[in-house]
Design a protein that fits this description.
The structure is a homodimer of 460-residue chains. Chain A is of the alpha/beta class. Chain A folds into three domains: 119 residues, Urease, subunit C, domain 1; 252 residues, Alpha-Beta Barrel (TIM Barrel), CATH 3.20.20; 72 residues, no CATH class. Helix content of chain A is 25%, strand content 26%. In chain A, the strands form four sheets. In chain A, strands 1, 2, 3, 4, 5, 14, 15, 16 and 17 form a nine-stranded mixed beta sheet that branches. Chain A has a five-stranded parallel beta sheet with strand order 6-7-8-9-10. Chain A has a three-stranded parallel beta sheet with strand order 11-12-13.
């Protein structure tokens, strides 16, 4: 499992040998109905022959079967490319890359495009490297975007644990597995000429990498300006209009349905109502809590949601496979079941409900009926990556006391109103009780105190 | 005109400045109906602001207009990306790159993907370089594939003027403007394990380049084997079934409509009858004679032909713009009218008849109403590129005499039957008159003698 994946040029000859029957396949899937993400067709009676970690043939494969070939009968079932998550922060699932893979591989996710900006906020580039290193041995492919906005905001708002600028981005662009600059959240910086943001974008483009976007601003000239900088995607659309504006400028519109933010019902209308070409629309999670991964699923869940909203199943699968692969220029390796690509194939019992019976990754069966076949080796981390929450003292309830200008009675307070499943919040003013000069939380009305504690520099 | 084109990372900041109105555009096209090749929509009342050679904004552009801005009113007209020819041998037009540009720019072709294997057959890599060098100063962009099959056949069939192998391919892969390995015509070599062909494919893939195909063989396992090698396109389909088989394997199906070969009427049925997703279908000419360029046109003609056959105009334009750009991984520069891309924009009077009134390339108006605005500088060639037809003696009619076994009467002869507009030929046997022991041609029945004369090594 820790064997390095092949490059096509290293193995193409042996794939040709298998397709021609001069050598035998390691694995043949027989007589499935192929979800063809190129032509948007269902094609019946298709065999797939795999040699090593790549697909040698798609068609009729009897001549590639030898005594050592594992044959899986897929009659009456569907064959889909492994699902891709085009934008996810694994740290938001509060687990390691390995644990994440354990949860999502049985759900059919065979590759993820991660932006490890949470670990980078703590450990800088070294943290990004740790994620890459851990990922190397996994049957789930991990493609990395170098975080562009570390720290995420400005010194006025945040005490940063690390900083990443153009020089660090340039260094990381040379690492294997790095495919993009991570979401450029500082979009005001881009349109108003921030040196650091432009520096990072420029070195990324120069290295031929994709620049990932995050645009939550207006959809007029400013969005054009953002796109002109070279940013070519955005997962930050909460309405049909925002999604449409980005798609029309050629940005990949990533439709997000995670745990905290659920934009699909609105944004998918660019397909179901506006009927635009879906070629530059992808399905992504952004953030996904562990309990949701277990109970609802991962990309399989979003595909189901898209189908529920009226998207036809093949288009929904395109949005979670070939479209994402093309955006990141990885379609020579992933995103389709076709000759030369990695053997990442799902066998589905049903297309509309996306019921996955077998998950094949790198040409090996890794999960069956929702369960991993072989346990993944737990990762080990160096000591510098542990115990990074450094606070001056353990917080106590009294640290959260808020003094009121009166002793008893009630006062008006500012409240950050959460909009369920949305990234935006609402400014509310509510009445809260005061006792002994202190403002009292009201769990009944879901009014709680929140605090940010500095955890990098022992000042919090 | 000989100014080097910008890279996006060099100019992105100035594009952002224009989009935000902090700097002014050089050219603004106002109120056109945009052919949106991403979303497959027509969008009305769209302005396009261009700075230097790239697009800064697509939307409302009044704030980008300054005293020095050229404004073109496109009300009631259509805006399309410049057309791309995804596979063409300029040598087959029997003119220089400059002359070719003169003919096709007014027809809306702003970029061509050339495979200069004819000049390479004579001059080797040096010939390829000459084409690249000549192209540099032109307003038409020229992307080069390194010829993979030089010589085109085997020593038994052909006396070669030059040879290109893996080492030469590797050298050329480092040249600016080289984007692919040229059509791998030796498909038997690929599927039967020819060292040279695999060597060339491997170095091309290693350099991250596209490998162009040419498959005229059967559509079963052999085609899978060919695709598994890394070849990702084929323009050599003469039937719907051939086109479909390639598209289903994820190869870009290039629908060819040139001068010698006219495959569109049959192959376009993959769209009009099979209704497949057109994302990996492109329109190409392959070979185009000068008189046809002048009388019928170039890619504009093929788009018209596709529309005549029932393809909707936006899909037809996608097949000649964004699809081709994506295949060659050049969509960050060409293939769409969107921020950051080169200012290659066509203003069309009518969509269905593809009537082009203005051609803008690199942000400059280069043609109007079918005429170039400014003459292109004639190229100069080094002496080694001239007088390359070296024959022992000037051919005379007696060289074409064919002796018959009888003196007078008639004999049966083998005839290569031409199938009008098709690449295949037919083996015919015809009766021809014999006079004084010589077989006589019959122009009435279009039966002529043909000969191949060795022209490289003074042996012919």
């Amino acid at each position: 499992m820790s064997k390095r994946r092949s490059r096509l040029w290293e193995v193409e000859r042996s794939l040709v040998d298998v397709a021609m029957g001069r050598a035998k396949a390691d694995l043949v899937i027989k007589r499935g109905t192929l979800v063809n993400v190129f032509t948007k067709e269902l094609i019946e009676e298709v065999d797939v022959a795999i040699k090593g970690d790549r697909i040698a043939l798609v068609g009729k494969a009897d001549h590639t079967i030898g005594p050592g070939t594992l044959v899986i009968d897929a009659e009456g079932k569907y064959l889909s490319p492994g699902f891709l998550d085009g934008h996810v922060h694994i740290e938001s699932s509060m687990v390691t890359v390995t644990q994440f893979a354990r949860a999502v591989l049985p759900r059919g996710t065979t590759a993820v495009f991660i932006d490890p900006h949470e670990i980078a906020n703590v450990l800088g580039l070294e943290g990004v490297k740790l994620m890459l290193e851990e990922a190397k041995g996994l049957p789930m492919k991990v493609y990395v975007s170098v975080p562009s906005c570390v720290p995420a905001s400005f010194p006025e708002f945040e005490t940063a644990g690390a900083e990443i600028g153009p020089a660090e981005v340039e260094e990381a662009m040379r690492w294997e597995g790095v495919v993009a600059l991570g979401e450029v959240m500082n979009y005001p910086g881009v349109i108003y000429g921030d040196e650091k943001m432009h520096g990072e974008i420029q070195v990324s483009l120069k290295h031929g990498k994709v620049v990932e976007g995050h645009w939550a601003g207006p959809i007029g000239s400013e969005l054009s300006a953002y796109a002109a900088s070279g940013v070519s995607s955005s997962h930050e659309s909460t309405t049909k209009e925002m999604g449409l504006a980005k798609a029309r400028l050629g940005m990949y519109t990533m439709v997000r349905e995670g745990s905290a933010w659920k934009d699909l019902a609105d944004v998918i209308k660019i397909i179901t109502e506006e009927r635009i070409d879906a070629r530059r629309v992808c399905l992504v999670t952004d953030d996904r809590h562990p309990e949701d991964l277990i109970s609802e699923g991962h990309i399989d869940h979003i595909i189901r949601r898209a189908i529920e909203e009226g998207v036809d199943p093949i288009t929904a699968i395109q949005m979670a496979t070939i479209n994402t692969a093309e955006h990141f220029n990885q379609d020579q390796d992933i995103g389709s079941v076709s000759p030369g690509k990695f053997g990442d194939v799902l066998i589905l019992d049903d297309l509309k409900s996306v019921e996955i019976s077998v998950v094949i990754a790198d040409g090996k069966v890794v999960a069956k009926e929702g369960k991993l076949i072989e346990e993944l080796r737990p990762p080990t981390y160096p000591s510098f990556a542990k115990n990074t929450v450094r606070v001056k003292k353990r917080p106590t309830p009294s640290d959260l006391e808020i003094r009121a200008p009166i002793d008893e009675g009630s006062v008006k307070v500012h409240v950050i109103g959460v909009l369920e499943g949305k990234v935006n919040t609402k400014h509310l003013v509510e009445e809260l009780e005061v006792r002994e000069g202190k403002i009292i939380s009201d769990p009944e009305r879901d009014l709680a105190k929140v605090a940010v504690i500095e955890r990098h520099k022992l000042t919090g």
